[in-house]
Amino acid sequence: MKRRIGFFLFVAVAVLTLAFLLLPIVGIFVHTSPGKLLGQLSNPVVKDAFIVSLKTSLFAQALILLFGTPTAFLLATRRFPGHSFAVTLVELPLVLPPAVAGVGLLAALGREGLLGSSLSALGVTLPFTQTAVTVAVAYVASPLYIRQAIASFEATDPHLTAASRTLGAGPVRTFFRVVLPLARGGLIAGLALSFARGLGEFGATIMFAGSLQGVTQTLPLAIYAEFDRSFDATLAMGGVLVLISAVLLFALRIGLSWQRSPSTRSQSLFGLSSSA
Amino acid sequence: MATLTLDQVTVPLRTFELGLSLTVDSTVALVGPSGAGKSTVLNTIAGLVKPAAGRIRCNDETWFDAERRVFVPPEERRVGLVFQDYALFPHLTVRQNIEYARRHGADEYLDRFKIRHLERDRPGSLSGGERQRVALARALARDPKILLLDEPLAALDAHTKIDVRAELQQLLAGLEIPALLVTHDFEDAAALARQVGVMVDGELRQTGSPADLVAQPADPFVASFTGANLLHGRPDGSGPDTTGVRLDDGTVIRTSDTGDGPVTLAVYPWDITISTTSPDDSAMNVIGGVIAGITELGNRARVTIGPISAEITVDSLRRLGLQPGQYAYASFKATGTRIVASKGGTE
């Protein structure tokens, strides 16, 4: 009997926890009917913010992928003096309060900043431009991709890379034909996480890039700006972000399940056997 | 046929140093306990491990020379290395695995290794024996100058192992390149290779044909590795043609070899006869005792009495109705014993 009560308590707590997590999402969609949501998409503020968010996010993720992948591979496969320092450095933006990251970027890349005069000499002004949004997002979101990428590369069986070499493939071919395909699931999962984090970026962006409609005002910044004026627009933007997050969460799940079972993986996306 | 030469190749390992000179011009097996550095030898030949010193040559190509600072990377060495876990690419089909080594002509290998019906399968769905055939096909599809096999039978269950060993025997017999295989099982080595080297702690203790190693083991380790019983004792009186050796438990064994000081005697299990009554024949050594254990291995059985393990057929086991706990006699001839080490041995 006692055991039953204990079990019931656990179930009750779990249900409460899950309900708590779901509640805000329900709130957004109860307030906004799909029709209203679509209607708000023609609101210029919402439209501009959506475009700015999409553009800067895509650029930032491309940068993260391009610079983060080789970095992660090196950190995963080589041991060198200062290795653990480098891994810690990769995780720094994760623990840094975003507003501090924004101030730091301003102090480093701003007109009066560390590299400001060199950038001015090149005719580049970063702060309060759309490029600044991309830089802020890339800075804050990069650890989520790089950490996951390191883990995925570390999980690749070293015998497979060795086999590839003895079969006549050089290091580059081995990387693209063996390492990358096997780590693919984990890399997709990492990118989904990093994308989600970048899309929600607020603190660093507002410090380093400001909140100028159509230029640097991303969806989270627009939500904050519109909050006093139009709750409907705020909810609509919230709805858009929830939908994107749902897609990213799905990509994350699929990515992780790929990573876990590469040997039994079939060609189909959802684990249905291709030989059936 | 090509020749691979290792000349004083030295690789520092965690607790000892691998030091090896070896010539491979047919099928050679390296046998030794796990951790002896056998896999390192293969990885060194393949170029996956860089030695600290020495030379590796294949015919007139130098693959490694520490003094001249030559190090040919693995992709340019043309070795066919079959890993213990086969290391098949899990994201590629059987055909794609073979095409990874050879862009054209995969069909020849699919047919030769009887894996055409598996060509569209991924390694994850294959059995152990099938995986090995794919791994061999892939290694040979590379057109290697030497075939390297790392514990080719270790990943298989006992039943599959017998079939695969026969397949492997056939393959090696028809191979036109030298092959070097490593295994921890002397029986597998003897079945697959004409030349066997026994390796312990990174060094070769003895090389020779399997029969040589059994007949003339260089030290107690080689003797025990080839399956011999080892009996420790001291010489105790000589007869006209034989020497007596008093074992630690007082039993006196007669041997046709000679030695002085503490000695180690090797007796092979297949030279020992088991009987339920004390035998009266030409065997000079009879040890009576309770059967401590019986282990069946296929059609043979190992029967342990006191310090001695005998190998008899399962038919004999049934005929004599031997059971553990029963009193029986193990007998062997003085000529069936070898003194493998004087002065306490080196084990």
Would you identify the CATH H-level superfamily of chain A?
A: MetI-like
**Main sheet makeup of chain B:** 6 strands, mixed
Distance between the termini of chain B: 38 Å
Which strand order spans the largest sheet of chain B, edge to edge or round the barrel? Answer: 7-8-9-3-10-11
- Report the CATH topology name of the largest domain in chain B: Rossmann fold
Q: Please tell me the overall pLDDT of chain B.
A: 87
Largest interface: A-B, 22 and 30 residues
Q: Low-confidence parts of chain B, pLDDT < 50 over ≥5 residues?
A: none
Number of strands of chain B: 21
Write the CATH architecture name of the largest domain in chain B.
Answer: 3-Layer(aba) Sandwich
The Cα radius of gyration of chain B reads 24 Å
Number of strands of chain A: 0
Kindly report the oligomeric state of this protein. Answer: heterodimer
Low-confidence stretches of chain A: 262-276
Number of helices of chain B: 9
Overall domain count of chain B = 2
Structure write-up:
The complex is a heterodimer of chains A (about 280) and B (about 350). Chain A is an all-alpha fold. Chain A has a single domain, classed as MetI-like (MetI-like fold, Orthogonal Bundle). Helices cover about 75% and strands about 0% of the residues of chain A. Chain A has twelve helices and no strands. Chain A has helices at about 1-30, 35-40, 45-75, 85-95, 100-110, 115-120, 130-155, 160-165, 170-200, 205-210, 220-225, 230-260. In chain A, helix 8 (about 160-165) packs antiparallel against helix 9. The radius of gyration of chain A is 22 Å and the shape is globular. Chain A starts with a helix and ends in a 16-residue tail after the last helix. The model of chain A is unreliable at about 260-275 (pLDDT under 50). Chain B is α+β, with helices and mostly antiparallel strands and about 350 residues long. Chain B has two domains: about 5-225, Rossmann fold; about 230-340, RNA polymerase II/Efflux pump adaptor protein, barrel-sandwich hybrid domain (OB fold (Dihydrolipoamide Acetyltransferase, E2P)), CATH 2.40.50. In chain B, about 25% of the residues lie in helices and about 35% in strands. Chain B is built from nine helices and 21 strands. A six-stranded mixed β-sheet of chain B has the order 7-8-9-3-10-11, sandwiched between helices. Chain B has a five-stranded antiparallel β-sheet with strand order 2-1-4-5-6, covered by helices on one side. In chain B, a hairpin with a 4-residue loop joins strand 5 (about 60-65) and strand 6 (about 70). The longest helix of chain B has 16 residues, at about 160-175. The mean pLDDT of chain B is about 85. Classes of the chains: A mainly alpha (about 280), B alpha+beta (about 350). The interface between A and B is medium-sized, with 22 and 30 residues.
